[in-house]
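tl;dr need the bound structure. longer version: we got a ligand (zinc ion) that a collaborator sent over and nobodys looked at where it sits. i said id run it. heres the input, straight from their email, havent touched it
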Amino acid sequence: MSQRKLTKDNYYSPEMNKEYMSVSQFKSFMSCEARTLAEINGSWTQEAKQAFLVGNYVHSAFESEEVHSEFVEANNVVIFKKNGSKYSDFETADRMIETVKNDQLSMFAMDGEKEVIIEADLYGAKWKAKIDVLNKDYSRFTDLKTTAELYKRFWSDKYNGWVSFIQAYDYVLQMAIYKQMIEKQFGGNFSPYIVAVTKQTPCDKAVIDFDPTRFDFEYLYVAEEMPRILKLKAGEVAPTRCNKCDYCRFSKVLNDTIEVGELLK
Ligand SMILES: [Zn+2]
């Protein structure tokens, strides 16, 4: 096992993804084992999606002015049109940033140390996490989320029912794991918050808290799935293909026909 320290520069590297678990890696394994392993082994790179860039643009605005201008500089071509105005996604992003900055409660929740890298041993693995906002004085942490709208309903097989975007994107799981990791590292009892801002015109916003009883289900869920993930990462079992994602489509080899009904599975 390597002794390299987890830093801002190597946080997203394949080496560190191999060595550490993370919430996004866990979610990725749940959606497609084959693609996740191919990514970890470096044989498949997911293209940075526009939504991801817009999200990072918004996050950088709350980290510091310096980080935000560095981000704008580095991504100039995707942000600005030839005539100097911004592409509409980034104009929306500017409105989202303003919405949060003009709201006192949101800014209170956003107050603290930004982009804090932590690590902890959980469920037989080393985990890494980057906390958007950590406030040790108030024993709380906050994640900033951009979303289409606050009240949209999603069908969830995991929860076997209709859920909000918070469960649909596994943000309860994310907050549950972060809470365990932070408490392992710093002690005490930390409360998670999500500052959510929408892409609507005008933007909607909310500061969301969590009934702690929601976390027990997530801990059971992760504990149940981790043994297989550890075996997959160790190369002891073969990954299952989801047959729907970009990687599976790219690497698909047909060896049989399918009946019409298969298309609805
Ligand atoms: Zn797949």
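gonna send this back to them w/ a short note. Residues 14-253 form a domain with the Lambda Exonuclease; Chain A fold (CATH 3.90.320.10).
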